[in-house]
Amino acid sequence: MRLVQQAIEGLYLVETEAFSDERGKFYRGFCKREFDKHGVDFEVCQTNVSVNPTCYTLRGFHYQRPPSAEKKIITVVSGRIFHAVIDMRRESETFLQKATFDLSAEVEHGVLVPEGLASAFLTTAADTVVIYHMDGFYDPKRNEGLRYNDLIVTVEWPCQPVLVSERDLNFEDFESSHLGGAEWFQR
């Protein structure tokens, strides 16, 4: 396993090394030693599984505000996703910058998303299963979102989503939400 720092501070591609034989594949999805080597404090306290039968299902953008902000490792165990993150940390040099990743079960890589980044994905295959290892607990009072097709914080999706939850569709746009105002994401 290897952590590859991306242009946004704290965002890493988690490259895995699979061992294959007649039984299939085996790889580590998390290694505390490797994370410690990069100065990443991460203790898994919750694991979430997202099962997506429909191709072009979109989930996000989601994040939690302090004091419930959380890091997460996103890994695809079946299917494929286009994963996008947006840096929402006002004090960050990469404030509002985006990064995207094509993740699949075939490649086995994951993404470590730090606190303060909003995360979304679009399935690009049917029957896609995504696992999230979280270093914080879900807090419904601090759980927020940004609309995936916001005109200010744009992401170039590979195609138009066919399935988006009512909640995700109804997130306010960037300018009229608390995000565009004085109460920005602060650590």
Task: Provide structural commentary.
It is a single chain. The chain is mainly beta and 187 residues long. The protein has a domain of 127 residues: Jelly Rolls. Helices cover 5% and strands 40% of the residues. It has two helices and 14 strands, in the order ββββαββββββββββα. It has a six-stranded antiparallel β-sheet with strand order 1-2-10-7-12-5, with no helix packed on it. Strands 6, 8, 9, 11, 13 and 14 form a six-stranded mixed β-sheet that branches. A two-stranded antiparallel ribbon has the order 3-4. Strand 3 and strand 4 form a beta hairpin. The longest helix has 6 residues. The chain is globular, with a radius of gyration of 16 Å. The chain starts with a strand and ends in an 18-residue tail after the last helix.
Structural category:
mainly beta
CATH class of one domain: Mainly Beta
* Approximate helicity band: under 10%
Tell me the series of helices and strands, N- to C-terminal: EEEEHEEEEEEEEEEH
The CATH topology of one domain is given as Jelly Rolls
